[in-house]
Amino acid sequence: MKIVVGISGGVDSAVAALLLKRAGHEVTGLFMKNWEEDDVAGHCGAEEDLKMARAVCDVLGIPLRTVNFSSEYWDRVFSYFLSEYQAGRTPNPDVLCNKEIKFRAFLDHALVLGAERIATGHYARTDERNGRHRLLKASDASKDQSYFLYLLGQEALAHTLFPVGNLAKTEVRELAREAGLPNHDRHDSTGICFIGERDFKSFLAHYIPSRPGEMRTLGGERKGQHDGTMYYTIGQRHGLGIGGEGEAWYVVGKDVADNILYVEQGEHHPALYSASLIANQLHWIGGRPPAWPHVTHAKIRYRQPDQPCTAEQRGDGLHVSFDMPQRAVTPGQSVVFYDGEECLGGGIIEQSLPVSRDEANRYAHG
Prior knowledge:
- The protein is of the alpha/beta class.
- It has a six-stranded antiparallel beta barrel with strand order 12-15-14-13-16-17. A five-stranded parallel sheet has the order 3-2-1-4-7, with helices on both faces.
- The N and C termini lie far apart (52 Å).
- The chain has helices at residues 11-22, 46-60, 70-86, 93-112, 154-158, 169-178, 200-205, 357-364, and strands spanning 2-6, 26-33, 64-68, 117-119, 124-129, 132-137, 160-161, 213-216, 222-226, 249-255, 260-265, 273-284, 294-299, 307-314, 317-327, 334-339, 342-354.
- Helix 1 runs parallel beside helix 2 and helix 1 (11-22) crosses helix 6.
- A hairpin with a 5-residue loop joins strand 8 and strand 9.
């Protein structure tokens, strides 16, 4: 087949291209530039990534094309990112980037180039059962990225290959080393590209003006001043500047309208735990939701072990009740559902319901 591989400069996408070429496919690399707002400062590292992508394709003997999706990224991903922070939520731009850029803009562009399939270096797998394409967890559970791919639909999955999904990371690096790929020992990228190594608060302040306000306990006691509720997330410990004796302080809530950041003391304070949550903006990979109520498993963050739960659709959204309370359930993040190795879909967390101190302590201490 004619396959266009998204080449990022990292080892995973390089080995994806290597495996497809070895399988006899006609492979073309495509480097996507998604951010150029302040490239001069070198925060995103696109120039270095492109240099590495070219070196990889030279070794593989495949052509490399480049495309600039910065405009699409700004309109479809970054604008949403800013609006969510302004609303007091904590978004996950990687999830939306996968949907809107890597498996929409990239897919559309590749099809115009004559591709029959696209491929990426994501750690995930797919199969087809009864005419339906399924998204499956990667074989290497420690690297599984299906959580970030839950917004993909049938069309995207029908056109996508994940060549490294059956491999462990150590196997990927060894294949790259044996093939003489220049990035076989390159460090994996972490964090959000457009922020890079910068301080998150300083970056966000460039787009959203700071709005100082009070930090209070849930009982109303003033504990200090914050720089703006959008800079903090549920469960955050560092950067609060609250002194005194005893256990550390944590963010347990936000009142965006009155500009109050709520904090409480103790890693296992009950306000940090939730028995259930409400999710909206639901997406089901198979095209339709399961029958309600549905007993399943879910993750509320990447790399979290699957958590047993029951989901039920109600008027205000999907109610998800966990068998055991969950710590730091964060509005704006994604809850993603699984049936064994299959990723069913998910939604955006709107709110969570706290538990009693006894329930929190029982869960936290086993």
